[in-house]
Batch of 2 targets.
Target 1
Amino acid sequence: MSGILNSSIGRKFAMALSALFLMFFLLQHFAINILSVFSPETFNSTSHFMGTFPLVQYVLQPVLIFGVIFHFVMGFVLEIRNNKAREVSYAKNNGGANSTWMSRNMIWSGLAILAFICLHFYDFWFPEINTKFIQGDMTGLIDPNNADSGFRYFEELQHKFESHVRTIIYVIAFVLLALHLLHGFNSAFQSVGANNKYTKGLKNFGKLYAIIIPLGFIFIAIFHHLKHVLS
Amino acid sequence: MNLTLKIWRQKNASDKGKLVDYKISDVSPDMSFLEMLDVLNEQLINEGDEPVAFDHDCREGICGMCSLYINGEAHGPDRGVTTCQLHMRMFKDGDTIFIEPFRAKAFPVVKDLVVDRSSFDRIQHAGGFISVNTSGNTIDANAIPVNKADADKAFEAATCIGCGACVATCKNSSAMLFVGAKVSQFALLPQGKVEATDRVLNMVRQMDEEGFGNCTNTGACEVECPKGISLENIARMNREYLKASLKG
C-alpha cells in the first residue's frame, strides 16, 4: 500500500477520486443555486444552513478545499511528468484522428476553471469568510442588528450578476467546465478501473451530466442578469 | 503516383536529426508502405546516398517490428494495420508524406526511423510470464477449464504484438495499453492468477522506471492499435494494481 501515490496508476486513481468528489460537490452546488431561480426564500434558508452547519463548515468545507487544491496540483504534476516523457515533438501530429479535443486539452480547460475559481472565491467565498469569521456575524442577515431585515444570500447573489462582464466570464467558464467534464467524467471511471457492461450507459450519463449541469449554472447567471437588466 | 516524402534522418542516438525531403516517382498504389521505402532506398543507393534505416521483419502484420509515424499517425492513416500492411492506395498522387520515428523518451532513436523498444522487453521480463515447472511434470494447459468469455478476452489481450504504436500515439507517451494487455492476458486465466499480485506490481514499477508517461484516457492508443486492443485492458490493469497494492 505504501508508495501507491508514487506510481502512475496510484496517481491516476487519486486524480479520479478527487474528480468524482468534485463532480458530486458540483451537483450539490447546482441543486442549491437553482433554488435561487424558483424560490429565493428556500435559497436563503438552504444557504444559511450550509453556511452555519458545523459539519459542513468545519469538516466538509476543508475536505472540499483540499480536494480542489489536490486535483489542480496533481493535474500540474501529471502534465509536467507527461511532457518529460516525450523530449522531441512530432513535426506532424494528427491528434484529431484518434482522440477528442477535450481529452487532449484538459490542462487548458483546467487552467481556465482554476482562474474562474479564483474569481468565484473573490466574489463569494472570501466575503463570506470575512463576514462570518472575521467580523463574527453568523446571523446571515442583511442587517445583523435587525432580525426583520431578512437573509442576505439571495441579495448578494443578485448583486454579483448585475455586471455584464462578470456574467459573460461566468458563461465562458461554464462552457469550459462542460468541455472539461465531457472527458473528465468518463475518464475518472476508467481510472478507477470501471470499464464493463455498464460503461456505455455511464458514458451517455456522463455526457448528459457534463452538458446539463454547466448549462444549468449558465441559466442561473443569465436569469439573474436579465432580471436586473429588465427591472 | 508521384510523392514528396519528408523523412526524419538522424545519424545516431546523439545526432540532433532533421526532416529531409525526397521525391519518389511511379509509386504503385498496390505497394505496401515498406515496399515504397525499399524503392526509395534503391534509388538512394544508386545515387550514392545513405539509405533510410527503418525497422521491419515479418511484413505480415504479426511480428510488431515495423513502426513509423506517418502523416501524424502511428502506422499511418489506415486502421487495424501495421505499417507493413499499409498500402500506398491510402495516399493520392502529389501527396506530401511525413515519416517520423515513434517518439518517446523510453523509445530512443537509434538511427533515422529505427527506435530502441527494449523498454517493452524489460517490462515483460518484470512479470509478463507464468512460472511453469518444466521438469517433466508439466500439467496440460487444457486440463484446467477456463470460462469461454474469459478465454476470449485473454486471447484478445494476447494479440498485442508490442509494436509500441500506443506509446507513439499517446500524447503522454504512456505504455498503459501495452502493459494493460500483458497484465490482462494472464489475469484472466487460472494459470496466471498465482503470480497476479507480483506481476502487476512489478510490471507497473518497471513501466514507470522506463520513463513512460501517465495515461489520461484520451483513447488514442485504442484507435491506433493495429490489433484493436481495448481500453478495457487498462481498466483491468488499474483494478489489478489497486487490488495488489492493498494486499501488498
Target 2
Amino acid sequence: MMTTATVEAPIKKTHLLDNVKKTILQCGATVYFNKQEDAPRVALNVYIPGGNCIESVPGQQEMIDRLLMKGTYDKTAEQIAIALDSASLDAGFDTRRDYSILSATFMPDELTESISFLTELLFYSTLEELPKEVEKVAGEIKMALDTPKAAAADLLTRHLFNGLPYGVSTSVVQEWLDRIGRVDALFVGYQQAYKPNRFVVSVAGNVDEDTVLKTLEQAFQLARPKGTALESGMGKILKEHTLKENRVFTKPWEDAAQAQIFQAWLTPSATHKDFPALVLLDNILGSAGLTSRLFLELRDKQGLAYNVRSSLDGLKHRGKFTLYIGTEPKNVQLCLDGFAEEIKKLIEIPVEADELEAAKRNLIGRRAVYTETTSQLAHWVGAGIMMGHTVESLKTQEDKLKAVTSADIQRVAKTYFTKPSYTTVVGPASCLPKSV
Amino acid sequence: MMATAEKTFQLPFLKEPGVQMTFDNGHTFVFVPRKGQVFNVSTWVKTGSMNEDAQNNGVSHFLEHLMFKGTARCKPGEFDKAMENMGAIINAATWKDYTFYYVTGPNTDYGEFDTALDLHADMLLHSTLPEEEIGEPYDPAKGEEPPVKRERGVVIEEIGMCEDRPWNKIYNAVNAMMYPEGHPYRRDVIGTRTIVGTIPREQIEAYYRRWYSPENMTTIVVGDFDKATVVEKVQKAFDFASRTDATPALARYTEPTPAETFKGQFVTDPKATRYETIVSDVNTQFFSMAFAGPPVEDQAATVGMNIASTILGESLSSRFNQNLVEKQTPSGFNMLGTGQYEFKLGNVVFIQGNFNTTDVTAALDEVKAELIAFLTGKPITQEEFDRIIKKARVDFASGIETTSGIADVLGESLTVNGTVEVFTHWLDVLNALTLEGVQAVAKKYLQPELAFTAVLGSATALKEQSTASKTPALAVV
C-alpha cells in the first residue's frame, strides 16, 4: 500500500495575501495592491458594486457593461477593438449578481497608457450603440440556449430566485430585452453606478505601488464627481427569500442524447458563519474532483454519468447549493434517487475525520494552484471585497476552514437540505418526471 | 541510467533555460525551472486516435480513463485521493496525435512533488486495467445493458454528452468529408458506443503495451527545483525495467506508424461531397467550414496561417467580427471565428459561426464574400499585419504565464513536431514573417471552392435551403 508524505504533515498556511495594501484615494476609490515581483503581466481589476441587484429592468446592467466597449466620445467600437489588439492591454467587462467587473491585464511598461485607456471606457462611453446591441444580445441568447444543458441551468436560475436579481437568467433577459429602455434612461444608470468613490480596484503585479496610486488618482479624479451610494434594497428581500415546497421544472428536448438534471437548495451568503462548513460539505459531496462522493458513487461505481458534481455559489446576500448530472434519459429517476441518498447520508451520518481532513487539505492546497496568475490573485481580493469580506477576513478563510468539525457539516446539512429544493430536468419528454 | 543528447534551450519570456534529454531507454525528459508556488508534471504519449482503426476506434481515450483505475501499488482511487488531498489538480486528455496526463500541485516543500512524480510514473508504467473497473461488455446499439456499467458506461455517457453539443456534431461531419476512406482523422477521438461497450480488456491492454513505451513518452516538469535532483528523481520514478507486471514485455515501437502513410492526405476530388446538413432541435444555425492547411513541419506557413486567421477571425478587430458580427448584417451572426488545428498529418483551418437567419445560403454567401475580399479585393493591410504580429507576441507571453501553460506548449511541440524548437523559435519565425508571405499562405490554403462545410440547423432552416440554391461555388479571381 502506498503512503504519501503530505498526509502526515500539518496543513501549511499560504501567504498569498500577506503583502496586500489598502489605500483610499482622494477620489474615493479603494485600491488593493499586491506586489508580485516575478509576474510578467499586471492585472488591474475595477469592481463596481451593484450588478443585477441595481437593475430596474433585468439585463440592464449587463447591457451597460457591454456598451462600455462599444464607443466613447473619442473612439468608435471598431477603434476600441483596434486599440486593444494593438496594445499589450487585454480588457473586458462582465456583469455578476452583485457587481460589475472590468478585468484588465497589461505589460508593466504600459501602465500609464493602459490606465488612461481603461478610464476612457469607464467614464466616457456614449452607450449610443444600444439599439444594435439589443439586437445582438437577442441573437446571442438564442444561441446560448441552444443546448439542453444551458436550457436546464437557465430554468433553475430563473425559478430558484423567481423575480429577484439573483434569478436574472438568460431567458429572463430575453423576455425583458425590448424594455431595456432608451439610451438616455440607460445613461442615468451608468452615471450613477460608475462613480470613482464606488470603485474597488484590485491590482497585482510587478509595478511600483506609488506609481499605480498616483496614476489612478489622476485618471479618476478628473473623470466624474463623487456620488451618493446606490442602495437597491434587494439585500433584505434576498435574505428573506424562501422556497415553499419541492418543485420540479421540465422542458422537453426530443433529440437530446442525455437528460440534464439540476437540483438546488438556497444557502446563506458568502460571509455567513455557516459558509466554511458548506464549502467543505460541497468539496466532500461533489466538487473535489475525482474523489468526491457523487463522483465515486454515481460515476465510478454505477457508470451513470461522465459529468456529475455539486457546486456552492456564495453571493453577497444569499447563495445556492446545486447538484448536477448529465445522464442517459432513462436513468433520470435513478440519478435523483442517487442525489437523495447522498444528501441523506450527509444529514444522518457524521463525516469521518479523515474525509474531512482530506477536504481541508484539498481546498487549502489548491488555493495556490488557482492563484498562480496575477489575474487570479487580483480577483480573489476584489471579488472577496464585493462579497463583504475584508482583506483580514480573506486571510482567515483558511483558519475558518480548519476549524470546521464533522458536527458542523452535519448541522449545516440538516439546516439547509431539509428545506425545499427545486429540480430542473431537460431531455426527451418520455424521461421527464412529474414530481420529485 | 545515462542521459544522452542533453541540450539546453531558452524559452521566450522565461528567465532560466530549460533542458531536454533522452535517457538511454528512449524516454524523453524536459525540465523547465520556474520560481513560484506551483509545479506541473506531465507525460505525453505519442498516441491518440491516429493509431486506431475502425475496429478499436476510441481505445486511446478509453485507456486514458482506465489508467486512473489502479496499479500493483495503488488500489483504484488511491492515486486520485493522494493527489487531491494535497490540493493538486489531476487529469488527462486524448486527442488525435497524443494522450497526456498531468498533475498541477502546490509546491510548499512538504514533498508534494515527490509524491506526485512517484505516483504519476507508477500510473503510466504499471496500470493494471482491472476487469471489474472496466465493467461487463455490452452493446448499447443492440439494447443491451448490464446491471452495473462501470467505466464503459461512463465513456458511453461522455459520448452522449458530446452528441448534445452542436459544435461537436458539425466538427465530426466535416472530418468525415475532408479525409479519404481509412484516414484515422475521419473518426471521432471518443469512439463509438458499440466499440467502447464491447472492446475486450485484452485488446485495451495490448494497445497499452504497444504504445506506452519509453520511446513514445515525454515527461515534462516545470517548477522551482534543482535540475540534477529532478533528473535523478525522474529516472528513478520512470524505471521502465521494473515493469515486472507487464506481460508480455513492451514492444519497442520505433518504426513509422501506419497512420503516417496518410500524411498530407485530404480529399481533393472536385466532385466529392463538400457540404452536409444536420437537422437538430435548435433555434439558431451552426456551421463549420474546413480547409486543408499547411504541413505542421512548415513552421513559417503554420505561423503565417495563424496570423492570417487572427486577422480574418480571431481578434476583436478581425474582419469577420467587425464586418459581419458587429455590423449585424441581415444574417444576424452571433459569432464568427477562425482557427488552425496543428496536426501531425496536416493542419486544418476552420471558419466556424452561428447565425439567426433561416436563409442558410445567404449566410454562407456572406462568409464566403468576406473571405474572398480578404484574399483578393481587400488584402491584408500593413496596419493590420503590424497590429496582429504584436498581438501574437502578447498572446504567446500570456499563454505561458502558468506552469501548466508552459508544459502544454512544450508537450504539444515535442509530440506533434518532435522538437522543442517549434516553441523556442516561435518568436523568431513570427518576426521573420512578411505581409506578402502571410497573404500568400492565406491565398494558398483558404480557397473557398475547396472548403468542406457542415451546417447544423433547425428543420425550417434546412428545409428552406433545400428549395433554394445550395452554396454556390465562388472562386477566387
